Amino acid sequence: MINPDFLVSFLLASFLIAVAPGPSNAFLMAQTFANGRTAGMQSAFGFALGGVVHTFFAVVGLTAILKASEVAYSAVQYAGAAYLCYLGIMMLKSTFIKEPIEQSDKPHITTKKSKNVMFQAMMTEVLNPKVALFFIAFIPQFVDPALSSATFQLAFFGLLYPLFAFPIDCAYIYFGDKIARFFRDNPNSQTWIDRITGIVFIALAINLLL
Q: Which residues cross the membrane (predicted)?
């Protein structure tokens, strides 16, 4: 059983957090600009799956270990930064390698670019220790020990957050794609969009280390 007052407070706080611009939204917009709405949706699904993984970690206590161990925190932090940096470098590299594109194809919609986007987003979320600490610091505030099992409530709120944030991510993707369409008709613009996307990924890697 869930405390109704806590549930309302949780939904309100989750809305404000999901709407506020942050690294996840930057990743979503970068993928949407570079690869289109489909890639943006794949990113949103990836972040939702990452939230499920973090919920599992929080419930079984792995997140508490991460919080208590500076070595474990740093290891995950550097792994996440390295992964984002790798994505950024590969994106930048792709802009300097010319591939033949049929005229009937849209330059930004390619299977090669978008097939792993969901996995990339999920790993970006999972390898972000700040997200892990967010789950362990934010969600327990809404657990009412006088009601049902604390573990059940942690799992409930932990799974509810990505479900609640997903439609907001979709709104970012929708409007981002509308803006990006203006630039995608020009192949030269697409190259610069990809380069900016790569720079955004590298900037997110640096931000993760701060």
A: 6-23, 44-66, 78-96, 117-139, 151-172
